């Protein structure tokens, strides 16, 4: 891709982020995708399930772009590691949507995090969790950790599985993958230079919070893995 077009994308991205504030983040998230030349295909425009509680939205995790894509569809909250707060692009969006930041390596915080998540769900807040705990660029992905599913069970909240797939020119792509020792700015630069990048977001039917958390996590994981290859491939 030409240097001029890449520069234009960076300038457009900066313009979008300058206007980010609390409220409806959908236009800002869509603006980020447009600025970077990314196409989003989503099979829904609402991830929340109409219910008396919020919805626990669980997804495979490929890239920081997963967060932008979800906000472009349905501006819900997130549960994310504390480092995300200081990230360029994502940090401002995450804070504006009321993200709960946690220290993932401090296990003593986990019970309080689960209790807080359950309370948010009871009060009608919908929250996105990436239960693999880290990003995966392909293959079957990681095992879904079970703690967040206990919050859905405690709150009696539905669980909405979501699958992300990335492609370029109709073929699976890893250009947006954010794994290993990757840093955000080099990743963002790769994305800004990419051609024909497409994100496919597939929301699966909601799951009732029945059974124990191990069984619920396994059901959600199976649903997410039904769609790992882009439909355009």
TrEMBL record:
CDD domains, per database record: LPLAT_AGPAT-like (cd07989)
Domain (Phospholipid/glycerol acyltransferase): residue spans on this chain: 55-167
InterPro entries: Plipid/glycerol_acylTrfase (IPR002123)
Pathway of action: Lipid metabolism
Name used for this protein in its record: 1-acyl-sn-glycerol-3-phosphate acyltransferase
Superkingdom of source: Bacteria
Keywords of the record: Acyltransferase, Lipid biosynthesis, Lipid metabolism, Transferase
GO molecular function: acyltransferase activity
